[in-house]
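Narrative progress, year one. The postdoctoral researcher (J.K.) led the effort to move from monomer predictions toward full complexes, under supervision of the PI. The following entry was the first complex the group processed end to end, covering 918 residues in total.
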Amino acid sequence: MKAVMEYFKKNNDAFLGDMKTFLAIPSISTSDEHKGDIIRAASFVEQQFTGMGLKNVQQYPTKGNPVVYGEWLGAIGKPTILIYGHYDVQPVEPLELWKTPPFTATIRDGKIFARGTADDKGQVFIHLKTVEAFMKTKGELPVNVKFIIEGEEEIGSTNLAEFVKKNKKLLSCDVILISDTHMQGKKMPSITYGLRGLTYLEMTVTAAKGDMHSGTFGGSVANPIQVLAEILTKCKDPKTSKVKIPGFYDDVVPLSKNERKELAKMPHDDAKYAKELGATKTFGELGYTTVERTGSRPTFEVNGIWGGHTGAGVKTVLPAQASAKVSMRLVANQDPMKIAKLFIDYVKSVTPETVKVNVKLFDNNGHPALTPIDSVGMKAAAVAIKNVYKTDPYFTREGGSIPVVADFQHLLGVEAVLLGFGLPDDNLHAPNEKLDLTQFSNGLQTVAHFFHEYATLKK
Amino acid sequence: MKAVMEYFKKNNDAFLGDMKTFLAIPSISTSDEHKGDIIRAASFVEQQFTGMGLKNVQQYPTKGNPVVYGEWLGAIGKPTILIYGHYDVQPVEPLELWKTPPFTATIRDGKIFARGTADDKGQVFIHLKTVEAFMKTKGELPVNVKFIIEGEEEIGSTNLAEFVKKNKKLLSCDVILISDTHMQGKKMPSITYGLRGLTYLEMTVTAAKGDMHSGTFGGSVANPIQVLAEILTKCKDPKTSKVKIPGFYDDVVPLSKNERKELAKMPHDDAKYAKELGATKTFGELGYTTVERTGSRPTFEVNGIWGGHTGAGVKTVLPAQASAKVSMRLVANQDPMKIAKLFIDYVKSVTPETVKVNVKLFDNNGHPALTPIDSVGMKAAAVAIKNVYKTDPYFTREGGSIPVVADFQHLLGVEAVLLGFGLPDDNLHAPNEKLDLTQFSNGLQTVAHFFHEYATLKK
């Protein structure tokens, strides 16, 4: 281990030099004009794989952007870790808010600034350079590793599930390791053990074939906005914030005593939290803390609503239609398709016969993910963190969704460890994205320890 | 009377010739580019007044477009009728949908097509030519008349109330006569005896200082769309459609037995009505018919709503704000300002402390108007109609608002008779506006009879 740690120290500048080259490629996946950059980024990853001694290195074409694969399977009898990351990045607008150009990585105050530093090129580099360090110093790793680095994460990993399905054998492993999340703080290391899933729908209430004059017709036919408001009100209890769709909570894995204890360790101040958001106070499901509400409980949220006259001034219109976009964040073991169906059935059952309702399900659905905190992967990660950060990690459940995590778990039948080294203020998807260099350095060491610990614990 | 009727017959072509000249002036008040046409139209009315023998003819300047005044007060000891109308018209877009040019009046199938035929130049002409007929054949009228023809009706009669306030003595009268509405049909003459008032507000619910990620924050703070939906649901009962704002109905003049009987005479088929609107069925306040609901009962309607992501596709946003525009149609004797205050107070009282709410009152408020069907003006109008149409008129209450009617009533303290000769399919504010020439001819005769009957009945 000592040699590996020294390799990290000695080669820090070289790592950052390579990382800057990677960060200079504007591999934005949301628009077609960067197709060439996507290819360049995939090739860069491929070269890194080859350079550090991986075998079987290959770019797998998909219907979209290629997946780059590489492996080292020389640790006979040892477990296999599948490392996932992505080489594509978010757009950079608004450009004028960047202090230094988004594709010219710049170091200041111990942080490296550029699009993709935290999400996810910089974090992918933690794994690349950890494996490189083992290979260059010892010629081998304590575990077998397989890498897949994709190029469509920022556009919903559109073709990844298909790739995983087709290549189950190639990707077979004992655990999945992902560094695409953040910790609570530099001195508050944490491991994400749960992610919420998502189902997203849009409903339209139609009362008539066209807009009507609210004077001439007002009072004689249903108002679709009013009906939509009634339907939404029937979906969530205003007092308890419980979702009122029958069966909604049926498959929810309840929080264990131990989990609630772990989650309660997280420093959190409701008043401060509300103030930072500009809210008068926090509000959520009765019987749960804010930390529990945002990570381990499902939600029902209206994401958008529109109907009638939405411009300036007055228009005395009785609208023909009104629509709303709603989404539900799900937790293990809720199934997005099942929940979507419960919602659709419920909406239809509570819609009065004075209007027609149409509900459309978007394809941005994702399963929730949950890796028990007493699983081998979690335990190995906790020890690795303690070795480096000199403190026990917090265990957290994130409110957001990374559908690919659940996809991996479902398709490969193994658990995922989300060992992210970002920080809450990394400006993901925003101007001045950065990665803290202490976190980068700690990340290298933590992943090295993780390899070692996992090999030891996983018998 | 015979001489007057013969004058109508003999001069019909001349009337239409003059009307076409009036209709050729594009006196659109909604945009400044037609200012010159507005002045030309006002001068045209002034010339007509002088030509038919009115005295004291004058254009009164206002902050906006001039009001044209003329009078004939030679009927000593007889009542005075104030005739109101407007010389301004609506815009004509979309031009391509007009079968003949909007400012080249064209007669086909017994109808005259042009912008302003029904609303209101053609109906103003009914009064001009009736007075002309009396003056040319008898040299006098059975009543005293005062005309005010304004040029801002299509932009809310912005300066008219001020003008009336300043000239109460000039405008003093026994009754106001207005022909700016329509009848139920050519063989279903009707008199409008009530108009709804209006109060129009906008409310914004704010939950946070900026939009939030629905994954990270969903479930921990209030969703402003959800809260807005709850507030709207608390404003109107989903089952009875009763407005739930305390005190809302306090000042409503209940429908009398006689009124309900009169309103019930109107042929109406709920199923046909719903089908024409494309609604599955009618819906409104429990205990009232559709005819009663649209004219004689107050309403609460959401005219517009918006918040969060309203574009295509998905965005997992927990919005910071949501807004709705709401309006209430009012009936006698509800006061728009009082009702607005009741609404604002109620909204504040039902808004949870998890959000802030802001309510803004627009200045498009109007009092309701009601002229009892047993008043002298109504009786005279009913006899006049029966004389010409050979059938009793229906008495109707219109759902829309003409704030100027209530303003007149309030400021001058007299009743208004809405004796409109338009038809429901006149295409007001739309391409191919028309006035039926039989209605024009019947209108001349009816107004002549009205003068006579009113002079007789008003002792």
